[in-house]
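Entry 14. Structure prediction run on the chain below.
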Amino acid sequence: MQTKVSFANSGLREYCTKYLKRMRPHVSSVVVVYDSAVPEYLLGQATAGVIDSGCNMKLIKASRGEKNKTIENAVQLATKLLNAKVDRNSLVFAVGGGVTSDVAGFAASLTLRGVRWACLPTTLLSMVDASIGGKTGVNALGAKNMIGTFHFPEFVHTDFRWLKSLPDREFRSGLGELQKTALLAGGKLWRLCLEANPIQLRKSTPTLHELVQIAAKYKVKVVSSDPKETKTRQILNFGHTFGHPLESASNGKLSHGEAVSFGIRCAINHSVEQQLCSAKLAADNLKLSRSMGLDTGIKMKMPTASELRRLLGHDKKSKDGKLTLILIEKAGRPLVREGYWVNDVAKIIIANQ
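Output returned:
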């Protein structure tokens, strides 16, 4: 992974100009793919930076929301890129949240067998997780991210000013991924998360900005050691195997981060039951969940056992019909456990509802 990751509170226009000019081969043209939730004044700064770089630019407005994360929309976007006359030296510039970066990055990977892309994440979820790591793709068969590619962005630049207009629910969604990363990383990130108060976590504050930077750098480190998820990178699925089926079944009622937070609770409680970790970790995790506003329970009817088994059966990381779970010994020490039958995982989810 050679993605440049950076953070700032200002200078968006200048940053875009600087990095576009530095790219090699030189960028022939830029197609900015943005979603409707992007604040106009910040989008204007980004596009002004593109113009200042001397690149030809075109804009494409993307459909936002998980329901639009489909193969049809990805192919439609790839076709629009072709109509925009992109070539192998062009750059697809995704400006938006996780869905926008997933679909735009995927469309870029399909177009001409791979056009370069970069990302300006505008949501907390995207800043902490979705824009980093090169996983692009769409949902299929009622399950998450079933069709996709590894296509690493040239750079990811976080400007924390995007967070000022982020709705509370999307803030919580991002906090679910921050909670995951803090447990995986342990150390300073976990300690700072536990010490932070709800206001520091739920608003765009200096404390949150520091946490985001530590979390993003941790993910970069993990991904760099295992870009194609053959071994080490598996730990980033912590909470996801349990959470994804509920997110898919909720039809939008449950955000990604809320589902992951529930999945983390499942993983920690099962780890306690298996005597892999202490009950104190479960208590500390519950405390953090409350500070983040993620302890309110599942706001949906729990899927039936048979529906859970069907959804779990679509898990793309299953091997020979069995699932791999990421459990935990303590903050900073995740454990990979293979060989769980789908039915057993469904029972764990139901037990934690």
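The chain is about 50% helix and 20% strand.
Filed with the rest of this week's runs.
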